Amino acid sequence: MTMGGRVNFGLVVNGDEKPDRDPMAIVAEQVTEAVAARDAGFDAVSAVHRYSYGPAREDDRGKPLTTWRMQPLLLIAHLAAHLGDTMRYGTGILLSTGAHPVQLAEDVATLDAMCNGRFRLGIGLGWMPYEFEAFGVDATSRGRRFTELLAALRALLTEDEVTFEGEFFRFERATLVARAVQRPAPPIWVGASSPAAVRRAARYGDALIMSAHLDLPTLVEQRKQFLALRDEASLAVPTQSPISRLVVVAEDRQTAMTEVRPLAEKWYRDRGGWGWFVTKNADDDVALLGDGRWIVGDPDDCVRQIARLRDELGVTDVLCTLPPHIGHDRRMATLRLLGEHVVPSFASNPPVLAGNHATGEPR
Q: How far is CA 289 from CA 31, 67, 328, in A?
């Protein structure tokens, strides 16, 4: 299936950082990279989420992750103050771990106003058991809790007065103090990586954020499931189809592949011991690097890989994570390469491969 057409690019700004780094330097880098993404033709900037690793302890699996990152809603407000109406803003994704629907609805409405009606909430279930323990939330009930959160959140954002009686959340005649700009509400994009999560996204989301850690055939099936469920419920087909991807691009393919392997090994080994395996084996995870989980290669390779996501999955928005381990200078160089040779290929027409990279005017 060949679909062609425009693809929007979003930069994910806040990856894992070493705990000894200066937080003010990190914020300055994030602003600089967001500005560079805008100048490269990116449509949006988004922030991902992580909570305290809580009571995680060293055991026979090794040491728990000790990286940290800025909290996303505050970071997005800071970036919007610098970038104004030149970008769209979002979370990609916010974790449901300790969220309460009233507080979250107030924050979303406030942030939408700060972003001049250009904010979208990307939200997901969360998976790290230590984060749930840190909030005193039973991780085994997280799916039911998240479903309730989404139902209550949408009601609060779209109705003047809400009474809600659920297993986890209860409130009577709640009225928001804050008011969003977008009507009926800022878009809610729901992340999913399992059939149950896809069902939840189809019912409560405005779009499905396709996982960064699933191969293309699995995502094709999940996309079909999502659209079929929307049709069964007489819900509109979403106009946007976002996907998260880790991106490593260099002037030549060999440099990119040489660079990405140690990054991927660290990525999966660090997280695999604490619950984030793709195949339950870190070596196998790295071997699967070429199956579409990462966008890797020279600019023409990246154009081909993104075109495949667009044509086979209907992807309209690629949320790009540049691995933090490569450093600020390398991330800036990556943004320049993407802006010069990749982003223009998807401004409106199908990709153009020019041997020495695609050419065109930034959006």
A: 30, 23, 23
